[in-house]
Design brief:
Layout (H helix, E strand, L loop, with lengths): L5 H8 L18 E7 L3 H14 L4 E5 L14 E2 L6 H15 L1 H5 L10 E5 L2 H16 L5 E3 L1 H7 L13 E5 L3 E2 L2 H14 L3 E4 L3 E7 L2 E7 L2 E10 L5 H7 L7 E10 L9 E4 L4 E5 L5 E8 L3 H4 L5 H12 L8 E11 L6 E4 L5 E5 L9 H14 L13 H4 L14
Parallel strand pairs: 1-2, 1-11, 2-8, 4-13, 11-18
Antiparallel strand pairs: 3-7, 4-6, 5-6, 9-10, 10-11, 12-15, 12-16, 13-14, 14-15, 17-18
Helix pairs in contact: 2-7, 2-11, 3-11
The structure holds flavin-adenine dinucleotide.
Flavin-adenine dinucleotide binds next to helix 2, strand 2, strand 12 and strand 16.
Length: 414
């Protein structure tokens, strides 16, 4: 792999930047692999990378029906945090944040992690109590979080409207949280996985499974059949459709989740601000755009909101908190199909179908989980037993009742 550095940039500038290698090989599909991963999003690519790097399993293919990162991994608002409520989620998401903290160096790819803090606002005495409880739980789980008075919030975010319909009475912040560049995360994992021998096959749709008894032995794809000892599904909003074809029913609802950005402006907001009550989260990208996100739009919710589109609600909520953005023009708006579980915790690990592993149910928050998702899934596939950090996220919790309801810590998202 051609290393990226100041010297290589300088060297290539003398030759008109014509000597750069492709970042990853566009591999042809072989007829058989040890492991096939379906889905070239962040989770699929990270799983492939850690399988090759940590477990020495290099006969691995990542099959992607479109282009890598074309799913939710390239469509999200890049929020990277670990301020969850329950110990199981905290341990997993903080492992992910720690991996993010070293990811640029690990992958030799600048993922542009900017730890600018993630601030949660409270708008009533009751909500402030809930924030205190949430913050205490985060700290007890060994993760960083601090309560903020309205004065401290004002110092950090002077442009915030404190006299909004629901006034700001306090909140808390996770200082280590922030954003990173989603395309860079996808490309960085793809490049390093490819350098370790992983085949990345784009434009290859998986349509069905080959089986022998209760075991999957391969896949039917748009490029022909491929056999595999182990198969991992990492297809986010397509999980139910594909798992069904393998005879597996998943407790998932697939919904659209939107985000939008304004035209770019000079730096005005150097932290992420989230309000569950006013129902929006806002940040400023490195390019200067104001990035807005809110909850998933269920198919029924348009009617429930009296026919008001999600976009209008989200913009109205953002302007309630930041009236000074009212003259900005909205530049782009898009959506992705997210897979939501009843307890808003992911489903990861082995399945009742031998040889088939699942990584899904990320809902609105799986970007921040990419490094830990890849790391723990790789371990699980390599050892055919769940990594201890994801053992609580197994499919069995829906029959045992050991649910991990992170609905509140999912912020505005669900
Ligand atoms: C608008 C929006 C904002 C978000 N904001 C955040 C955020 O701020 N922070 C956060 O943590 N998370 C956020 N998320 C969620 C996050 O983006 C996802 O949870 C995460 O990217 C999921 O990664 P993945 O690799 O599992 O799925 P994806 O990146 O969606 O990858 C799955 C891939 O599988 C491919 N595929 C599907 N079916 C097949 C098939 N049959 N054959 C072959 N390939 C197939 C798809 O083409 C896709 O590329 C957001 C999501 C959206 C939509």
């Amino acid at each position: 792999m051609q290393r990226y550095s100041f010297w290589s940039l300088l060297q290539h500038s003398f030759t008109g930047n014509s000597g750069w290698q492709a970042a990853w090989r566009n591999a042809p599909l072989r007829s058989s692999y040890d492991v096939v991963i379906v889905g070239g999003g962040g989770h699929g690519l990270a799983t492939a990378y850690y399988l090759a790097r940590k477990h020495g399993i290099r006969s691995v293919a990542v099959l992607e029906k479109g282009w890598i990162g074309g799913g939710n991994s390239g469509r999200n608002t890049q929020v990277t945090r670990s301020n969850y409520f329950y110990p199981e989620s905290s341990a997993f998401f903080d492992h992910s944040l720690k991996l993010y903290e070293g990811l640029g160096r690990e992958l030799n790819f600048n993922v542009m992690l900017s730890q600018r803090g993630h601030m949660v606002l409270a708008h009533s005495a009751h909500e402030l109590d809930m924030c205190r409880r949430w913050m205490n739980s985060i700290v007890m789980n060994g993760v960083d979080a601090i309560m903020l008075t309205p004065e401290e919030i004002r110092r950090r975010v002077p442009i915030l409207n404190f006299r909004a319909r629901y006034p700001v009475v306090g909140g808390f912040i996770q200082p280590r949280a922030g954003i990173s560049r989603h395309d860079a995360v996808v490309w960085g994992y793809a490049r390093s996985a490819s350098a370790l021998g992983v085949d990345i096959v784009q434009g290859c749709e998986v349509n069905g499974f080959l089986r022998s008894g209760d075991r999957v032995t391969g896949l039917e794809t748009s490029r022909g059949r491929v056999s595999a000892e182990r198969i991992v599904l990492s297809v986010a909003g397509n999980s139910t459709v594909l798992a069904n074809r393998a005879g597996l029913r998943l407790p998932l609802t697939t919904m659209a989740l939107q985000a939008m950005v304004s035209e770019p402006v000079k730096p005005v907001l150097n932290t992420l601000v989230m309000s569950a009550v006013i129902h929006v989260y806002v940040s400023q990208s490195d390019r200067g755009e104001i990035v807005l996100g809110a909850g998933a739009d269920g198919y029924h919710s348009y009617a429930q909101r009296g026919g008001v589109p999600q976009l209008r609600n989200t913009v109205a909520a953002a302007l309630e908190l930041f009236p000074c953005f009212s003259r900005l023009r909205l530049m782009r708006q898009w959506a992705g199909a997210v897979d939501i579980t009843p307890d808003t915790t992911p489903i990861m690990g082995l399945t009742p179908v031998s040889g088939l592993y699942i990584n899904c149910g990320w809902g609105t928050g799986g970007y921040k989980a990419i490094p830990a998702g890849g790391d723990t899934m790789a371990y699980t596939v390599a050892h055919n037993r769940p990594h201890h950090l994801i053992a609580p996220f197994s499919l069995e919790r829906f029959t045992s009742g050991a649910l991990i309801d992170e609905g509140a810590a999912a912020g505005v998202a669900h």
